[in-house]
Structures are given as C-alpha cells and as structure tokens.
Specification:
The chain is α+β, with helices and mostly antiparallel strands. 32% of the residues lie in helices and 22% in strands. It contains five helices and ten strands; from the N terminus they run ββββααβαββαβββα. Strands 1-8-9-10-6-7-5 form a seven-stranded mixed sheet, sandwiched between helices. The protein has a three-stranded antiparallel sheet with strand order 2-3-4, with helices on one face. β2 and β3 form a beta hairpin. α1 (67-85) runs antiparallel to α2. The radius of gyration is 24 Å and the shape is elongated. The two termini are 19 Å apart.
C-alpha cells in the first residue's frame, strides 16, 4: 500500500488507500475494478478494466447534470403564468393556492438540486472560466505504441479529466507518453514536437524513480513550474510500480500526473481512485 505525501507549507498528511473505489461525478459513472488479476504471461498485456457510462442528450454545450434546474425553471414559470394570466383572482380557491405553492416548492427544489448534489460531494467542477490564459487543449501520444496500450492510455486520460477537477493529465509509462487537457504550448507545434517537449520536461523534473505519491494541494506551479501548466494550484503525481512475482520489490515504471487550477482539488476518494487507475498499468516481472 503506497503512502501519499502532501508537500506544502503545512505539515504533510497521509491519505489511506482503499482496495475498491467507485467514483461518481455529475452524470458520469466510472467504475474501476481494483482486483488484482492473475500474473499473465510475459507476452500478454495487462488490460485496463474501466467502463464509462454517461447520459447525454447529444446537445453541444449542454451539461445534462443541470437538467433538474432547467426543468424547475420551466414548470415554475408555467405555474406563475397560470396563476396570474390563466385564472381569475376572485375565483381562486384555497385548494388551488395550496397546489400552486406545492408546485413552486418542488420547482425551487429542482433548481437548487444540482448545486446541492455538488455541495454534498465536496467537489466543484472545472469550467472553461477557470482555465488559465495562454493554454490550448491537446491530445498527443508517443508513436509506435501498441494498439492495446494506446487504447488504455486514451481512455484513462479521458476519464481522469472527466471525473476529477484536473485540467491537464500526463501519463508516462515505460517511455510512452500520453498528454491530454490544457497546456501552455505554441500554436504551431506538431504532435511530434509536443512529444519531444514532454520528454524533455519529464527528464528535467526527475520523476523517473518516483515511488510515493506526491500531492501539492496549493501553489504547485512553484514546485514544477516547467512541467505543469501556468496557473496550476494543485498537483498530484501517482507513481506506476511494476511488481515482481518472485519478490515483493516494486520498480517504478512511470507515473500519472494531474494538474488543477483549484486549491485542494483532490480529496481522499480522488486519490484512491487515481491510484486504482495507476495500478491497472503496472505489469509483472
């Protein structure tokens, strides 16, 4: 079980890891199976067992998690129009007033329901307004990656961005790179140039032998300012360890890096779930 070290101006904290974690955010449901599979043959690749189910109406720019709010606005407006325009105040009965008050109460509850759900979860979504200036959305991978690993990297980077407060994800596994999200890059940079740029940044950061999880909950851009996007406040680096069948030694083979513009962006459930995703990339010697 890996410990998670928090590096900041305050005393460091350790988060416990959980063997099984199910993480939900908004209307997205992601389940990561943490059960260790049997050691495969050396010619077989470990599969990333992750599934994503998302309800969507297919309307661009519409966040389906706010549907209860729009429904509440709609029915509340209809009730008010019916009261003031569709009925005579002289003939309004007490039963009708009670029904309208009940309907307005339900509409008000539907309006605040999305905010209430996010408050209870203790997380806030990252929207376009919180993105730092000068960043561009990218999705790049190293060349010559086998199809199975390429698919795993693509799905892992997508769900990490979709279900956490991160704005940028960088996955480095045995020399293979997958970067996704918002980064400070030149507008005319090609994918080949970006891969080389990330390789140089990773080498300068010295994260190749990382064995313990690093978590900078605030002002992380001062620690890895050359690696993370500008304006980063929280940074989480989860190592990927290769487990030996013959011994208990764990060899670092890569890491998963997540950057966010929010302070304290990753809670205990986030760190446990991210560790579960990282465990799916570890191999057996």
């Amino acid at each position: 079980m890996n410990s998670i070290s928090i590096i900041c101006s305050k005393p460091w904290i350790q988060f416990p890891s959980h063997p099984t974690t199910t993480f939900r955010k908004s209307s997205t449901i992601v389940r990561a199976s943490l059960q260790d599979s049997q050691p495969p043959n050396t010619s077989q690749q470990q599969q990333l067992n992750l599934s994503v189910l998302r309800f969507t109406l297919g309307i661009p720019g519409l966040d389906e998690s706010y549907l209860p709010r729009w429904i509440g606005y709609g029915f509340g407006s209809l009730l008010l129009l019916n009261h003031f325009l569709g009925s005579d105040s002289a003939t309004v009965t007490q039963a009708q007033l009670s029904t309208e008050v009940l309907g307005l109460s339900l509409a008000s509850f539907s309006i605040v329901l999305p905010y209430l759900g996010k408050f209870l979860k203790g997380a806030q979504p990252v929207d376009q307004t919180t993105l730092p200036d000068g960043t561009q959305q990218i999705f790049v991978m190293s060349r010559d990656i086998v199809d199975g690993v390429k698919e795993d990297l693509a799905w892992a980077s997508y769900i990490l961005l979709r279900n956490t407060n991160a704005i940028a994800v960088l996955i480095f596994i045995e020399g293979d790179i997958c970067a996704r999200g918002y980064w400070n890059i030149s507008e005319d940079s090609s994918k080949e140039i970006l891969v080389g740029w990330f390789e140089k940044k990773i080498e300068n950061a010295g994260l190749d032998d990382l064995k313990d999880t690093l978590y900078f909950p605030q002002d992380a851009d001062s620690e890895f300012q050359d690696l993370v996007p500008k304006g980063t406040r929280s940074l989480l680096v989860q190592p990927v360890l290769q487990v030996s069948v013959e011994s208990t030694l764990q060899k670092p083979v890569g890491f998963i890096l997540l950057a966010s513009t929010m302070r304290y962006a990753f809670n205990n459930k986030d760190t446990a779930w991210i560790a579960a995703v990282a465990n799916k990339f570890r191999g057996n010697l």
